[in-house]
Write a structure and sequence with these properties.
This protein is mainly alpha-helical and about 100 residues long. The chain has two helices and no strands. α1 (about 35-60) runs antiparallel to α2.
């Protein structure tokens, strides 16, 4: 899944590159995945769970599937993943609002 609006990582990204020879804040390594990569990966996983839940519901309705418990479980997993991703989004928006309101 790509970034359809081009907002994530635009203009230098979320994680700026420190000057040469400088250590990152807190001594944390910078060679890990970026926030954008992790966010896009989680979006893809949530999308897959939603697709699986939809397919399970359709299979149950058409008679290709008999286990109602499996359909309920797939639906609940997709719902929980979506709610979790929504909370991450809310925290990012809240952090952006706090940064925007800072006096320089």
């Amino acid at each position: 899944m790509s970034d359809p609006l081009g907002l994530i990582g635009a203009g230098g990204g979320i994680r700026p590159t420190p000057p040469s020879g400088a250590k990152p804040a807190g001594g944390q390594p910078t060679d890990g995945p970026s926030f954008r990569d992790m966010l896009m990966q989680n979006l893809e996983q949530v999308n897959e769970l939603q697709t699986d839940a939809t397919r399970a519901i359709e299979d149950l309705q058409t008679g290709r599937r008999e286990d109602v418990e499996g359909v309920i479980l797939a639906t609940q997993k997709a719902d929980l993943a979506f709610k979790m991703l929504q909370q991450v989004r809310n925290k990012v928006v809240q952090a952006y609002g706090e940064i925007r309101d800072m006096r320089v």
